[in-house]
Amino acid sequence: MEIALYKTDGSKSSKTVQLDDSVFGIDPNTHVMYLDVKQYLANQRQGTHKSKQRAEVAYSTKKIVKQKGSGGARHGSIKSPTYVGGGRAFGPVPRDYSFKLNKKVKSLARRSALSDKAKENAIIVIENFSFEEPKTKKFLEISNNLNIADKKLLVVLAESNSNIYLSSRNLPKVKVVRASELNTYDILNASNLVLVEDSINKIHNLFGVS
Asked: What is the pTM of this model?
């Protein structure tokens, strides 16, 4: 798949970029994308929720009323969930929400997400760039030149670049990641995928099928 290469000023370069069809041109598998997103969101959960069971509530263990003769129901403890302030029945306890997903499934999910963006023409490839110092204004200028300033962007770099990262940190609709950090959730969550030229080979090496 051949795609245009843009300069930071918004104009098209004389060069084009070749995207591997095994990564950007497959038929998207929606089910594996769902599984990968589900795992990603599950892994974000701390799982530290907790409520006190009846055995953990600090109340007396004395029997409230005698077993018989009161004319009412039998009650053995004020810790019962039927009483206000009693322990909670079947309440949440700390747990690990993460689950295993095979590497091949995760790889297929990422390739499906990238192919989905390619089909939507939501991938923009720009020439390599960097900033001498962190400047949000410069980053916004590039976004405006490409007519994507008002969209949710996922910018993919070949290697970490602190100046680019810091320049975009205050922009709520922009996320900057390295190619090795790409995941299905971020790809699908973005309106446009902005690939820096050098990141293409990294993506091909990571997700390409030989």
From this structure: 0.83
For residue 206, give the 3-state DSSP assignment. helix
Question: Which residue type occupies 80?
Answer: S
What is the biggest distance separating any 2 CA atoms in the chain, rounded to whole angstroms?
A: 95
DSSP-assigned letters across all residues of 166-200: HHHTT-TTEEEEEGGG--HHHHHH-SEEEEETTHH
User: What are the extents of the domains in the chain?
Assistant: 2-45+97-207, 47-96
What is the rounded CA–CA span in Å between residue 150 and residue 103? 35
Token pair, residue 189, equals: 């969550």
Give the Cβ contact number of residue 92 at 10 Å: 11
- Tell me what pLDDT residue 1 has: 83
Element (H, E) at 24: helix 21-24
Closest CA to 159 of 107, 115, 203: 203
Nearest to 164 by CA among 8, 19, 4, 10: 8
Q: Does domain 2-45+97-207 have CATH number 3.40.50.2300?
A: no
Nearest CA to 138 among 161, 117, 116, 121?
161
Q: For position 210, what pLDDT does the model report? A: 53
Among the listed residues 31, 44, 172, 193, the one whose alpha carbon sits nearest the alpha carbon of residue 115 = 193
Cβ atoms within 10 Å, residue 113:
26
**Residue ranges of the chain with per-residue pLDDT less than 50:** none
